[in-house]
Write a structure and sequence with these properties.
Strand content: 5-15%
CATH architecture of the largest domain: 3-Layer(aba) Sandwich
Number of helices: 11
CATH class of the largest domain: Alpha Beta
Largest sheet: 5 strands, parallel
Length: about 210
């Protein structure tokens, strides 16, 4: 079954390029493309996408705010930020809001691979963005030690694999458990660490260590 993709992008020419890129691949189905994210919560409920590609700067709406809105109704839907902005503030805010990946528009050809990566539990990012992410420190009321120490032995083991960049399938193979079991553990890890994505979880783990 094709991956259902919902796109938020106000640049019409770029949008056509993305649609063409995805439509040439039978693995993807672009179910809708919106020029803004004003109705994002209704869109998610009606269209039921498998993944969302989200611009940041759009008329009448902001992509980071849209991710925050999505997380109030769906904490599991993968959201890939797709933007020209590569400053620390936008990257940090997007990740804290719950974005699962961050791609720059100049690298739009990476979208197909990034969609598959994020659906497999990865956190795809343009390389220049990934370097900046390493400098971030998450803001949280509780200490990293308290949060990480609350994890079970199995959860810590899975988190260590996430830190190493393993996908859910790779973790399942290494630990001899089902992929869905890995997903269940990851959800519990996120809840205990009070984060929304793998990147933020890695932050806390690195702080702890």
């Amino acid at each position: 079954m094709a991956i259902r993709v919902l796109i938020y992008e106000d640049n019409e020419n770029l949008l056509k390029s993305i649609q063409t890129l995805l439509l040439f691949n039978n693995d993807f189905d672009v179910i809708a493309a919106m020029p803004d994210a004003v109705s994002v919560k209704d869109d998610i409920g009606v269209l039921k996408p498998d993944v969302v590609i989200m611009d940041i700067d759009m008329p009448h709406s902001n992509g980071v705010d849209a991710v925050t809105a999505i997380r109030t109704i769906n904490n599991d839907l993968p959201v890939l930020m797709f933007t020209v902005f590569e400053d620390n503030e936008n990257i940090f805010n997007a990740i804290c809001a719950g974005a699962n990946g961050y791609l720059l528009k100049k690298n739009f050809d990476q979208i197909p691979a990034s969609i598959k990566d994020v659906l497999d539990g990865g956190a795809p990012m343009t390389s220049s963005v990934a370097k900046k992410v390493l400098t971030f420190v998450p803001k949280n009321k509780s200490t990293p030690n308290e949060d990480v120490e609350s994890l079970s032995a199995r959860e810590k083991e899975i988190l260590e694999y996430i830190v190493k960049g393993y996908s859910y399938k790779m973790i399942a193979a290494e630990t001899n458990i089902a992929v869905e079991t890995v997903r269940s553990h990851v959800k519990k890890i996120y809840k205990k660490l009070q984060v929304n994505n793998a990147t933020a979880a890695v932050y806390k783990f690195n702080q702890h260590n």
